[in-house]
Structure formats: structure tokens, C-alpha cells
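Regression test case RT-17, inverse folding.

Input:
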């Protein structure tokens, strides 16, 4: 009975657990909406864009206050140097078979990291690229060329 009781506790699908998971998913979708708005605003007519920006700014403030009250935070690593210990999975790490990890940067977040009071609630997913500044050090060099003396 001890084993089945332990499994029941871990596998419980209580209303608070469902609500918590739903809130995390809502946070991810809010982040996606924000990304869409950022890409769409420059394409809008200026007067429409100004009005929309004002209305959307209000939504962002209210949403941010609610997230703070819940202790939730969204982490976007775009532009940051890649680190193996990041709480996000790179989709395209295999595209860089010989790249030193210090030469990679997060080029795009596909899904953000959702944190709750300093704890990862939902890991993110990301795309990587070679850091242009670090790559300039290796231009013209063959990483597989080993000269023995």
C-alpha cells in the first residue's frame, strides 16, 4: 500500500496542480503574443501602430503585475552566450559539430524559460548560431587541421 500511495501522490491531478500548469502555459502564450506584436508593429500604419502600442502597453503592464504577484518570470536568452547548463534545450546543437561552446550564442528562443520564485517551472527551447565576434578569430582556419612537429 505504501508504494501505490506514493504513486498516487506523485501522479495526482488536483485542481491546484492543473491550475498551476495552465498558468505556466498561459505565460508561454503571452510571451509568444509579445514576440508576434514586436514583429508586426513595424508593418502597421503609423497611426494604427501608435494606438495599438498604447493598448498593448496597458496589457503588458497588467500582465507583468499579475506575473509578479504569482512569482512567475519569463526568461528569454536571445543574444546570450550559449552555456551547456542553460535551462533550455538547443534544437540545432548538432549543426555545430566542431564549434567550441564558447563561440555559440542563442540566436532565437523558440519557447521561453518560465521560472517561479527562482525555480525552473518549464525549460525553454532555443536556436543557436556562431557568435560573429568569436568566429572572426577563426576565419580561414581549418579546425580539423592538426600539424604535428
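Golden output:
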Amino acid at each position: 500500500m505504501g508504494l501505490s500511495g506514493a504513486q498516487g501522490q506523485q501522479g495526482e491531478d488536483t485542481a491546484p496542480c492543473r491550475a498551476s500548469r495552465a498558468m505556466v502555459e498561459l505565460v508561454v502564450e503571452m510571451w509568444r503574443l509579445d514576440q508576434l506584436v514586436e514583429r508586426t508593429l513595424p508593418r502597421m500604419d503609423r497611426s494604427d501602430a501608435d494606438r495599438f502600442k498604447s493598448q498593448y502597453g496597458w496589457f503588458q503592464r497588467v500582465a507583468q503585475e499579475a506575473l509578479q504577484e504569482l512569482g512567475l518570470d519569463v526568461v528569454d536568452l536571445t543574444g546570450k552566450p550559449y552555456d551547456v547548463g542553460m535551462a533550455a534545450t538547443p534544437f540545432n546543437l548538432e549543426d555545430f559539430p566542431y564549434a567550441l561552446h564558447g563561440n555559440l550564442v542563442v540566436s532565437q528562443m523558440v519557447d521561453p524559460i518560465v521560472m517561479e520564485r527562482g525555480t525552473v517551472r518549464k525549460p525553454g527551447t532555443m536556436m543557436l548560431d556562431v557568435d560573429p565576434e568569436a568566429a572572426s578569430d577563426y576565419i580561414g582556419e581549418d579546425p580539423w587541421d592538426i600539424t604535428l612537429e
